[in-house]
Amino acid sequence: MTDAQRLDGATVEVIRNYVVSAAEQMRRTLVRSAFNPVIYDVLDFGISLYTAQRELMAEASGITHFLGANDRALIEGTDYIGIGNMEPGDVYLLNYPYWSGAHAYDAMLFAPVFQSGSTAPSAFLAVRAHWMDLGAKAPGYVLDSTDMHQEGLIFPGTRIVRGGAVVRDIAELIRFNSRLPELTLGDFHAQLAAIRVGERALHQLWAKFGVAEVEQAIAQVIEHGEAVTRRAVAALPDGSWTASDFIDDDNITDELIPITVTVTIEGDRITADYTGSSPQVAGPVNLPIGATEGIVKAVFKSLTTPWEPSNAGHFKPLTVIAEPGSIFNAQYPAATFTQWSAIVATELMHKALAQALDELPASSGGDEPGFMALGHDSRTDADFVISNNEGIGWGATRTHDGGNAQQHPSQTTVRNTPIEVLEHKSTIFHERLELIPDSGGPGTHRGGVGVLREVRYTEPGEVLSMKKKTKTRPWALAGGEEPEPSEMVLWPGTDRQRRVGMFRATMAPGDRFINRTAGGGGYGSPLDRDPQAVLADVAEGYVSRDAARQHYGVVVHDDGTWEPTPERAARAGG
């Protein structure tokens, strides 16, 4: 563009902030309208706004790999429909996993936005959120599917609103294929409300500034995003680094699944190449390519321009490679429902880059080790499905300890479900919820600690343990130590006691489970940790006296004084 075509910076910033505000208005509408706690409490959604050229111009905070996956999903969905076939007031439903970049219950609504009298869209909106049931082979989450057709009703980009009116036939198809139709259709209408709010905000913006001026401003914003990102990448060291790890299994066999990434920085570009990872597997841990791109985009953005609202320009210097038919580029009819692979793979990107960037932390607890409760509540005479994202410890860095009981880094603004909501919406009762002493990986800087939750069922039901890193430990850095992995213990203290990872179990009244989550990895030798920090950890209950002696070489006395073990003394003397 010529200098004469460029808008002044003040006008560009006003328009940029207006578009970001539109995304936030959509977010608030969704949260306030949703029927389902996984949306309004957990914040399990992604909201994006696009230009007429289908380039990202703004997004609201949500799950990171949803937001990145929306980019590909919009392209796939509009290509399938044909932009020329879209009409004002239309809204489309897409959950075909290989296009949408998520499992079938992460339903994305997208809509063209037309100016008055225009025959082509001037923008597109996308709102993705997790629906609680869409007719899969089992209620809640599908843990053992072996192809897509076991995972629920599929929509490839189906017109569900025509000319502003909901298409009754499609809505009824959803109603009769859902075990929880009121929740599912309620959340659909909440997403639709968010889209209408976004449409209104864009029309107000166009009326104020004119469509051409808005398009020019957004073009400059995207251009700026690319420029600052390229400068940020160019400031990183050039090189190529490979890391490997494992996902527990695919719930069909017990075999570990190897995953590998090679990250290459060359000038002002970064490539993430997943060649060498497992081929797609029988069970539902395979990832569509859109989900893989979402993982990489999230890590890339955090390294380059973490404080800037995202737009398409920020991702132009990034390339993602995953072989078709691999676990990171699943092909039809591969099962894709249980996408915990994306969470483990986020840490894999960090593990590769930590070899070059010493500001990166050790692994967090390595997973999102939550649970889901299902059953029938006699108090309401209604079925329920409710989930909880459990906190883990974050990994330590070279400058500080990891955070305690945080949501996994890949989950961004996601929250756990409050006990009050869990107990109100289901037939479970909490007996304990506490931090776990000694669960953080020891180090000069200690990994954050995890969470223990003990729950009792008051009526018959089911529990789904949701975790995919229970067989291998989260990794540490620079001589730090690795924490114990996450686990769920079913029927503790009985002759049926069983440790599980990803698992579905039937629970009778009085049956209990204990969910234990991993702490973060340590950074640096524990023998180099400041003794005063160890004393503080013991006083706070993060580290036991036995662990202070065993790992840190600090013998803590009853009066609060301490003395070094021979190992610490020898290290200090050496």
UniProtKB/TrEMBL annotation:
InterPro entries (UniProt xref): Hydantoinase_B, Oxoprolinase-like
Instruction: Please state every residue range assigned to the domain named Hydantoinase B/oxoprolinase.
Output: 8-526
Q: Where is the signal peptide?
A: none
Q: Name one Pfam family in it.
A: Hydantoinase_B
Name of the protein this chain belongs to: Hydantoinase B/oxoprolinase family protein
